């Protein structure tokens, strides 16, 4: 009989999956509140509906897979996926859109691969991309700030009535993408723009940044991945910005505080299951996400590219791990990659 | 090698050794053109026709082709037959020919056809080989049709649109709109949808097989327990 051999130091972490997930949910509260302040109760309705769908789909999938339902539901990972998706989807997205997005996130993004920790892709981003590719129109309808009331919003989500034209408005990233000849003054006069980034989106991004810094302080993840992503985005936007209006692609500050930048940097890129594992690998992973996000925003077909960038880098994560595995103490550095003559 | 019965051949082609669901052969056309029922049916029928004819032809020449050159010879036969089918679709269903595009000439490289030619037709008589081609082709075409139908239904909310491309103008109104005001789940028509739906179909088939195996096991009489020898010494597991 083999006894387990455990050597000192006997360090133990208090981080159970449930605690980690609850902390992530708590850290998302400032961002959620900021979105509620900006867009009205739609975000809140989305959050509740997405959570209900996620729990239902997760329970059904666990039952089909003959896994203990209550045990896995209690770890809270489905709730985190649902919350991140609800914050990423446009508020007042119709109910079936949230259903499809959350359902495919849990089912195709997570459970089909074997559940929590086995998923090669970030489940929330899978759900987001499925919805974005399938239903481009409702996925790009972001409401104007403070424009939609509670009752109207609820009716819009349930599809009972359609809001009058003009409730949805182009975001700052849309404006930048579709106009080539606006000067700086014209840009700042555009109602989509705020002080630095998108109108209101800058506040939301700062709120997500605050939540992310809280998680970093709690040491739920290293600094490598978020800093890598922000640095990649910053450097790219600095290189390709000519300091003027919409003929180049916006200032570094604008890119850091618009779209899903901060949500992505602190809540998506830091996913331990689908990202790279070594610290250096995480830095490269984040850098890749940042650069790709900028590439898609500037030259791609979609106004924001965080989701696609994350999925692309998820595919690259095993390769990053292969090349960045640290040297084992006392051993020579291993030769990696193709050698001449192979 | 003993000649398998017709029943066995049909069962193999349609279910037990289905080229699309079990052997996973010919995935390129299977995933490439299954975005609507009419495309799927068109390519399925063409593949089936080539498969029957190539099995028959390969079986007829199996005595004179030496093993060393058999594969090039079989591919030449298949390519010739595919060209005939291509010219036929061009002549009679030109619009469908344009929709299916490169996938009709690609039937030549469909692994199902060469696989059956080398694995079955080269070892059996012409009639049995032709029947095997029919069963395998039917199995392939049916999976293609189901896949195309499901993807079309999920993607557009309708079924059998544009059937006139295949069967002439009389069938132009075959289109069944099942959901009115359906937004269209675009992903199902795009390439990822093909992989997802095929995966679900394979899972369904395995589930049914599993269920049938359980039932068969349950139906067998349990061995009488009284006669079992009770072990009193040695290792107890």
How would you explain this protein's 3D organization?
The complex is a heterodimer of chains A (342) and B (237). With 342 residues, chain A is mostly helical. In chain A, 58% of the residues lie in helices and 0% in strands. Chain A contains 17 helices and no strands. Chain A has helices spanning 17-27, 29-39, 42-64, 69-73, 77-88, 95-107, 123-134, 136-139, 150-158, 172-178, 184-189, 201-217, 224-240, 252-256, 261-268, 279-299, 306-324. By secondary structure, chain B is an all-alpha fold. Chain B has one domain (6-211). Chain B is 62% helix and 2% strand. Chain B has ten helices and two strands; from the N terminus they run αααααααβαβαα. The chains are: A mainly alpha (342), B mainly alpha (237). At the A-B interface, α7 of A face α9 of B.
Key terms:
heterodimer; A: 342 residues; mainly alpha; 17 helices; globular; B: 237 residues; two-stranded antiparallel ribbon; 62% helix; 2% strand; flat
Give a brief outline of the structure.
The complex is a heterodimer of chains A (342) and B (237). By secondary structure, chain A is mainly alpha-helical.
């Amino acid at each position: 009989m083999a006894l387990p051999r455990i050597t000192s130091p006997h360090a133990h972490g208090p981080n159970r999956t449930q605690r980690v997930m609850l902390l992530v949910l708590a850290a998302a509260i400032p961002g959620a509140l900021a979105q509620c302040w900006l867009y009205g109760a739609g975000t809140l309705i989305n959050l509740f509906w997405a959570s209900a769908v996620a729990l239902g789909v997760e329970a059904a999938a666990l039952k089909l897979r003959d896994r203990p339902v209550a045990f896995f539901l209690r770890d809270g990972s489905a709730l985190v996926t649902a919350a991140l998706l609800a914050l990423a989807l446009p508020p007042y997205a119709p109910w079936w859109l949230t259903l499809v997005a959350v359902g495919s996130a849990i089912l195709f993004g997570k459970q089909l691969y074997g559940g929590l920790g086995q998923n090669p892709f970030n489940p929330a981003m899978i759900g987001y991309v499925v919805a974005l590719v399938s239903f481009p129109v409702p996925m790009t309808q972001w409401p104007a700030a403070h424009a939609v009331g509670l009752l109207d919003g609820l009716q819009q989500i349930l599809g009972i009535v359609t809001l009058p034209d003009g409730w949805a408005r182009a975001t700052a990233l849309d404006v930048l993408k579709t106009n080539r000849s606006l000067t700086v003054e014209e840009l700042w006069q555009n109602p989509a723009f705020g002080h630095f980034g998108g109108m209101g989106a800058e506040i939301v991004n700062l709120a997500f940044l605050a939540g992310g810094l809280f998680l970093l302080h709690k040491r739920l993840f290293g600094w490598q991945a978020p800093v890598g992503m922000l640095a990649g985005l910053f450097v790219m936007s600095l290189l390709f910005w000519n300091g003027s209006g919409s003929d180049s692609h916006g200032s570094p500050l604008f890119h850091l505080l618009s779209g899903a930048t901060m949500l992505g940097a602190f809540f998506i890129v830091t996913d331990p299951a689908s990202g790279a594992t070594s610290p250096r690998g995480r830095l490269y992973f984040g850098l890749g996400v940042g650069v790709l996000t900028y590439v898609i925003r500037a030259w791609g077909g979609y106004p924001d590219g965080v989701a696609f960038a994350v999925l692309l880098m998820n595919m690259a994560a095993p390769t990053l791990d292969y090349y960045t595995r640290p040297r084992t103490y006392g051993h020579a550095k291993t030769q990696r990659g193709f050698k001449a003559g192979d | 090698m003993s000649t398998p019965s017709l029943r066995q051949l049909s069962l193999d082609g349609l279910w037990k050794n289905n080229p699309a669901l079990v052997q996973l052969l010919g995935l390129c056309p299977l995933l490439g053109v299954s975005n609507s029922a009419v495309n799927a049916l068109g390519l399925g029928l063409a593949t089936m026709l080539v498969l029957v004819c190539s099995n028959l032809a390969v079986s007829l020449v199996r005595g004179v082709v030496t093993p060393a050159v058999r594969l090039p010879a079989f591919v030449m036969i298949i390519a010739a037959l595919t060209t005939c089918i291509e010219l036929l679709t061009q002549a009679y269903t030109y619009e469908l020919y344009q929709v299916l595009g490169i996938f009709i000439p690609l039937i030549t490289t469909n692994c199902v056809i060469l696989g059956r030619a080398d694995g079955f037709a080269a070892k059996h008589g012409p009639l049995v080989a032709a029947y095997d081609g029919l069963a395998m082709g039917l199995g392939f075409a049916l999976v293609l049709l189901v896949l195309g139908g499901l993807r079309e239904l999920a993607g557009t909310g309708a079924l059998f649109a544009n059937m006139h491309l295949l069967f002439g103008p009389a069938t132009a109104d075959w289109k069944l709109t099942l959901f009115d005001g359906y937004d269209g789940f675009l992903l199902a028509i795009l390439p990822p949808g093909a992989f997802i739906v095929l995966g679900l179909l394979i899972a369904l088939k395995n589930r049914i097989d599993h269920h049938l195996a359980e039932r068969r096991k349950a139906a067998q009489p349990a061995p009488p327990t009284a006669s079992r020898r009770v072990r009193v010494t040695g290792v107890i597991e």
